[in-house]
Amino acid sequence: MVTEQAKSEFILVPETTLPDGTVVSAFRVARYPMSKGASGTPLSVADSTPWVDINYHNARKVCEDAGLKLIRETQMLAIAWDISQQDANWSGGKVGEGDLFRGLHKDSVDEAQLGSYESADPAERSWHVLSTGELIYHFAGNVYTWVFDDVQGDEDGLISKPFATDSISITTPPTPSMEQGAGWYPGAGTNWSGHALARGGCWSSGVYAGVFRLGYVWPDSEGGIIGFRSTI
Question: Domain 1-232 falls in which CATH fold?
C-alpha cells in the first residue's frame, strides 16, 4: 500500500485569509479527486477515474485508514478563494472579468472522467491555478466532493445548524449565487441539518456548478456523481 500511495500527487495550499478575516492554515490537498487503488486505498492520480458510489461516512473512513483526512469546509473555501483571485481562472483573463471556469458541467459526458481528462470545449477547462502556480484538477465539475463541515457541523462534520448571516460558507464567494461562474449556494437561514455538505458540481450541473457551488446530500447516499478529495 505504501508503494501505491507514493504515486499520489498532493499540492500545497498556502495560508489563506478569507474576506471576513478567517485565517486558514497552510495544508496539502490532493491534486485530483481521489480514485480507488488496487489495495482499496484512496489515490490522487491523473490516470484513474474518481472513486464514486461511496457515502460520506465511508469516504471519511478510507481517508483515515490511509493516514489522510477528508477535506474540510474551511479548506474548500481557502482553495476556492485562492482560485477566485487568480487572473488565469477567469474567462476574461482578469479577476472579475467574464466567468470563473466551471470544469465539466455541460452534459458533454455521462459519467465521471479521468483526472487528466480535458473536454474539447474550452469553457469546460478541468484545471484551476493556485497562487503558488500549482494546478488543481476537477475542483468544479466532473464530480461533487464530500466535505467535512467545520463551520456549521458537529464533531462528525455533519451540518447541525442553519447557515448564519455571517457564515463564511456563504459570505466568501466574490459574486452572488449563480453569477460569473461561482455556482449555486444557499442564503442565510437555510437549514440542512443532518445532511453532509457537497461542493463543486458534476458533469451535468450546468450553471449550478462552480468553485463555490454548495449543496447537501444525505450522508448515507451513494451515487456516481459524488466522490471525495483528501488532505494531509
Answer: paralog of FGE (formylglycine-generating enzyme) (3.90.1580)
Residue 7 grid coordinates: 504515486
Domain ranges (residues) in the chain: 1-232
pLDDT digits (tens, 9 = 90+) for 96-151: 999 999 999 999 999 999 999 999 999 999 999 999 999 999 999 999 999 999 99
The pTM assigned to this predicted structure is 0.97
Return the sign of the alpha-carbon dihedral for residues 97, 100, 101, 106: negative
Report CA 140 to chain centroid distance, whole Å: 6
Strands (E), 63-206: 69-70, 127-129, 135-137, 144-147, 196-199
Q: 146's torsion region: left (phi>0), alpha (psi -120 to 50) or beta? A: beta
Q: Specify which residues 147 forms β-bridges with.
A: 197
End-to-end CA distance of the chain: 16
